[in-house]
Amino acid sequence: MKIDLFNEIQNPGPAPEQFRFRQALDQARLADELGYGCWWQVEHHGAGEFSLSSAPELVLAALSQQTSRIRLGHAAVLAPGRFNHPIRVAERAATLDHLSGGRVELGLTRSTIPEWNLFGVEPADARAQTAEAFEMVPKMWTTDRFSHSGEHYEVSDVSIIPKPLQTPHPPLWQAAASPTSFEEAGRRGVGVLGTTIWESLDRVARMIDLYRAAAAQCTSPVGSFVNDQVAYFTFVHCAETDEQAMRNGAAAAAAWYTVTALRFFNAAAEFAATMQRHQDILATGGNGLTGEFLRAELDAAPTEAQLVIGRIIQGEDVPEDEVFEVLSAQQSLIVGSPDTCRKKLRAYADLGIDRLMCLQQIGPIGADEVMTSIRLIGELIPEFDRS
């Protein structure tokens, strides 16, 4: 399992925005020295203190000039056309591939309700436009003259340049949170970028199995090859001792992230929409891999994490220590001394995860403490990444 870094450029509290960008550069240089596999940068808009990463392509371009080994992942480009036209996605990623010396990993995603509303994206179009983008981008990279005729895009005999430095092209990924999206990623032959936040190890394992089964059935990948990889991001904070990790504010950071993420992603509406999709699938017979997955969950009791999240969605002020205790108990958070973090990292490696994207700059944790955490986790990398 490769150990990566995942970054939102979060800005709670009074720190100047300039400080947060400089902090990201410092973290990337350190991660490059320590042998982290990839730096993954998100794309969010209108996110306030949750994420300053509204122009990730610029951040990644800057990082390409500050680092030499670490790969640079866009996790993920918001694919509906009102965010990013597929031509621009292909052009920017190929340019970054040249600037970085061939280190790009490219993810695409549909985004969510608040960002759709902000950019005027029709929810009914988001999935289809994302699917077209997945079809278009790798073909733009690998053909001299590109044409496409689809539901949302018409392109006739155009030279899309530059082509990527990597041949045949950079690895493709899909950010996914639902069983449906995990299956989509597998059937497209692209890697899947998931989240362990609020998820039990058992459910993570079943999501991986769902993806692997779908990828095994992929005979016509959208790209030139099947990128059969599973990446997951989770909250990581390492200190010299378990007690020091807690004194550094790990519990407060976990609670802050939970509440802020739920508010930004309009979780109540998204949760309702997800439940409706589940009902629709089951009402039509629950066929296919996702249908089988959802049927297996019908009789499962809600996890402690799901119960806590439900209370937060309903407006309850859940104490931050309780949020942290519940999430930490089910391995969702990797927090503590190097030995504690080693054991939790091993649990994920044993599930067959290819890349663990460690979110370390989060909430109110101080800049020095984040750098210490990156260094301590970096010292564990040789135990997991033997490539």
TrEMBL record:
Coiled coil: none annotated. It holds the Pfam family Bac_luciferase. Residues 6-355 form the Luciferase-like domain. InterPro entries: Bact_Lucif_Oxidored, Luciferase-like_dom, Luciferase-like_sf. It comes from the Bacteria. The keyword Oxidoreductase applies. Keywords: Monooxygenase, Oxidoreductase. The keyword Transport does not apply. GO terms for molecular function: monooxygenase activity; oxidoreductase activity, acting on paired donors, with incorporation or reduction of molecular oxygen. Transmembrane segments: none annotated. One of its GO terms (cellular component) is cytosol. This is Flavin-dependent oxidoreductase, luciferase family (Includes alkanesulfonate monooxygenase SsuD and methylene tetrahydromethanopterin reductase). The lineage of its organism: Bacteria, Bacillati, Actinomycetota, Actinomycetes, Pseudonocardiales.
